[in-house]
Amino acid sequence: MEEENNNNSEDTSNANAASTASSSSSGEKVDFVESTAADKGDASPFPMGSGLVAPANTPVAPMFGKGKSESGSQKVQHEVSKDEGEAELTKKSKVIAEEEEGDAEDDNADENDEEEENDGEEDAAEDDEEDGTINKETSALLKEPKDEIDKALEEYAKERLALEEKYQSLLGEAYKQRNAISQSIKGFWLQTITSIKPIGVYILQMDDGPLEYLTDIRVALTENGYTIDFDFDENPFFENKTLTKALEVSNLFGPGSPVFGNFSGTVINWKSEENNLCARKEREGDFEFESFFHYFNTTTSLLSISNGEVSPPSEEQQLSIKRDQEISEAIRTRAIPNAVKWYSGELVEKEEDEDVGASEWLI
After folding, report:
1. How many Å apart are CA 227 and CA 244, to the nearest integer?
2. Is 267 strand, coil or helix?
3. For residue 338, what are the domain limits?
4. What are the DSSP calls for 181-211, one per residue?
5. 10-residue averages of pLDDT along the chain (363 residues)
6. 247 and 105 in one domain?
7. How far is CA 257 from CA 79, 225, 245, in A?
8. Which of 231, 233, 190, 238 is closest to 212 using CA atoms?
9. 3-state DSSP call for residue 192?
10. Alpha helices in 195-314 (DSSP H)
11. Which of 190, 192, 210, 361 is the most exposed, having the fewest neighbouring CB atoms within 10 Å of its CB?
């Protein structure tokens, strides 16, 4: 058996050789091309690794069957379509989820707005109570006691005015006796008013000359406030014998601080321009100060009217108002009742210090 197989192998080899020789002898040339690295992937009828590929006109069988190849392509396309579908579904799901989340946020925002509105109404009600804003029902309940308080204050003001007038009459006699003596004392009233800080701060050195001729200061009540009269002896500065300041005070004898209205002063008739202190200013360091006599020479209104338009006072007018109020109240409440004590030094101003928040006068 082994010998027979060897013979068959030899016959096959001889047949191939003869066929090759026959082709060569017939003049037909067969080109064999050495395979390259790029060709190694192509299908070939020759054994792998032989380094030879079939001629260009040699039919080559595909490595994979046609049906098999198309089936693979369809599978890829199906997988791509599937991926695209899944991506589209995911995208739509994401959009729906975002819309639902947005709706939920809107609902929450609406609920929060409603809660905040309710809280705001409750807070407003609480603020109204804290700020003293009251409703009509509460206002009606408070009206009766309010009317009673107003009525009592009105009666108090009337009785106090009557009492003031009564004691002004009694004090008038005592003031005349004091004046009879003080007129013989040169500079009595100058010393008195300069000792009272709210007045003294406005008196300059150049004001001392005319004020040495001041013989008396008197206060008279009026229907809407009071007046202050300054009496002078004959002097080289002005012709006036009396300079008057009139002030409107709506609550002169009522509770609280005085509420001033308009006020006016006497026009001073200066004997010469040289002696006109209101035309001069006194310098101290970098500052200039006006004479005390501007207190009489100005007529001031809390509201000024120009071309039919009402406007508040200017900054300069506000300073004049402040000055006139301070001087007037200090004269009415401190200088006239206790002139002798201020002159003698029995009453003195206490300077501001760490223990006292404002200057005060002591007996």
Report:
1. 7
2. coil
3. 153-349
4. HHTTSTTHHHHHHHTSHHHHTT--GGGHHHH
5. 46 44 42 43 46 47 44 50 58 61 60 59 55 68 83 84 83 92 94 96 96 96 92 97 93 79 91 93 88 83 60 80 93 96 92 43 36
6. no
7. 95, 13, 20
8. 190
9. helix
10. 197-200, 208-211, 294-297
11. 361
